[in-house]
Write a structure and sequence with these properties.
Length: 314
């Protein structure tokens, strides 16, 4: 598959091996739940987003990641290479590859605990040269000091900085000042702003472009003073793990390929909807032609009027 533009997306972030247990429901604190299936799958927010950028987004994609020299690293590296991602690997000898423990319920909800392992050893100086890179995509499963340094370096090089502020945490204003596009979900928006109302929270964040994902409802966004609404596509969910990462990777890939922002949001929404229909954070990422077929055949599940009311845009 060829891409319309030669610009490259560089994802700098985490790579984990997911240990997934399927169960009737996610256990409450202190509760033991008997699962009915188990498997290991490649994951990690950074790696998931890189696979989505290359596979669903159709963009030339590189990834900076850290892996141990253990057997857990093997399927992660294979998954990324199979998706067509070019790899800049920092090999953390003597340190374990990152892992995540995922409980997936029969209703497609999940609870996730991450042990960062080698991911915590990624340093500012590990960022590769940015020649030919149009967008750098970052998350928060690697050291914050490194994320800040990577954002500064990309900004200085004239490369667009996209930050998926997940997992949720407060962020320094200096980092947000280097971000061109910030992507958060509702909980992450509330953590950053201290308010629950979506429109109010969006107005409080001083970033040029902000995208808020809303799960089964879709997403909303603000670019400057312009607002965007993208309702979700109708699917029967099987596993929501990695759906947000699929959204992020596909969105950035579309922007790197020169699509208009509204078109990129719709494409990202379609890809993330398809990702919910199959198991696995990376295995569930759809191919580019699958996204094209959904975009051609389907329309969002809800009206933008409903979404505007939910976001307090109306």
């Amino acid at each position: 598959m060829t891409t319309p533009r030669t610009g490259t997306v560089l994802v700098a972030g985490s790579a984990n091996l997911d240990f997934v247990v399927r169960a009737s429901h996610v256990p409450a604190p202190g509760e033991t739940v008997l699962g009915h299936a188990f498997e290991t799958m490649p994951g990690g927010k950074g790696a998931n987003q890189a696979v989505a950028s290359a596979r669903a987004g159709g963009a030339v994609t590189r990834m900076l990641l850290a892996l141990g020299d253990d057997t857990f690293a093997v399927p992660i590296e294979a998954s990324l290479r199979d998706a067509g991602v070019e790899l800049d690997i920092m090999r953390a000898h003597g340190q374990p590859t990152g892992v995540a423990f995922v409980c997936l319920s029969d209703t497609a909800e999940n609870a996730i605990t991450v042990a960062p392992g080698a991911n915590s050893l990624l340093e500012p100086g590990h960022l590769p040269p940015l020649a030919g890179v149009t967008h750098v995509l970052l998350q928060l499963e690697t050291p914050l000091a490194s994320v800040e340094a990577w954002a500064r370096a990309a900004r200085a090089a004239g490369v667009a900085v996209v930050l998926n502020a997940a997992p949720a945490r407060t962020l320094p204003a200096s980092l947000l000042a280097d971000v061109d596009i910030l992507i958060v979900n509702e909980n992450e928006l509330a953590t950053l702003t201290g308010v629950e109302d979506i429109a109010t929270g969006m107005d409080r964040l001083d970033v040029a472009c902000l995208v808020v994902t809303l799960g089964a409802r879709g997403c909303c966004a603000r670019m400057g003073k312009q607002r965007f609404l993208q309702a979700a596509f109708a699917v029967q969910p099987v596993d929501t793990t990695g759906a947000g990462d699929t959204f992020c990777g596909t969105l950035v890939a579309a922007l790197s390929r020169g699509l208009a922002f509204g078109q990129a949001l719709r494409r990202a929404g379609a890809a993330s909807a398809l990702a919910c229909t199959r198991l696995g954070a990376q295995a569930g990422v759809p191919a580019h032609d699958e996204v094209e077929r959904l975009l051609a055949a389907d329309s969002p599940d809800a009206t933008t009027e409903d979404l505007a009311i939910y976001c307090s845009f109306a």
